[in-house]
Amino acid sequence: MYKVLYYSMTGNTKKLAMAIADEIGAEAESIKSLTTLPDAEVVFLGSGNYGNKPGEDMSKFIEKNDLSGRKFALFGTSGSGEGNEVRAMSEALRQKGAVVLGSYYCKGRAFLVINMGHPGKEDLEGVRKFAREMIKSN
Ligand SMILES: Cc1cc2nc3c(=O)[nH]c(=O)nc-3n(C[C@H](O)[C@H](O)[C@H](O)COP(=O)(O)O)c2cc1C
Predict the structure, then answer these.
(1) Domain residue ranges of the chain, discontinuous segments joined by +
(2) 57-68: per-residue pLDDT in tens?
(3) pLDDT band with cut points at 50, 70 and 90 for residue 35
(4) DSSP letters along 68-134, please?
(5) How far is the CA of 59 from the centre of ligand 1 (A)?
(6) Residue 111 C-alpha to ligand 1 middle, in angstroms?
(7) Does domain 2-137 have CATH number 3.40.720.10?
(8) Which stretches are annotated as coiled coil (predicted)?
(9) Is the CB–ligand 1 distance for residue 77 below 6 Å?
(10) 54, 84, 92, 99: which could form a disulfide with 47 (CB 3.0–4.6 Å)?
(11) Mean local confidence (pLDDT), 93-119
């Protein structure tokens, strides 16, 4: 019914993906192992931020799939914690006719010493709450 897909170079966004999957009883999968978008009522789609953009594999995945009318809830992590990766994903998805239900983003540990401890307990509790809300509102 629901699916969690993510791109995570250093593991931070994967932590959010695992927390969402656990919260809603869905499977989480890296988009690296996928070519087509699986059937699901809502797809939770997440990426880290690299050079102020989502991962290249994520952008390509969005570009090459037919997303018209498909529903997404977005999540992301970055050094700044400002959510530019989810905004870029949201824009790309909307251009392809997809529906974006909402998004969650937080800081992720970067370059070993920046944002140590993130995503932490509060971040993970926050993303679990977000996942519940996305399902309730859908
Ligand atoms: C190659 C690289 C480029 C990055 N560029 C940015 C950036 O432009 N802005 C930012 O806020 N964080 C940047 N970061 C930090 C990551 O967004 C942050 O560590 C994020 O949590 C990584 O997610 P991941 O562990 O799921 O790969 C960069 C990290 C890497 C490894």
Answers:
(1) 2-137
(2) 999 999 999 999
(3) confident
(4) TT-EEEEEEEESS-S-HHHHHHHHHHHHTT-EEEEEEEEE--BTTTBTTT-S-HHHHHHHHHHHHHH
(5) 15
(6) 8
(7) no
(8) none
(9) yes
(10) 54
(11) 97
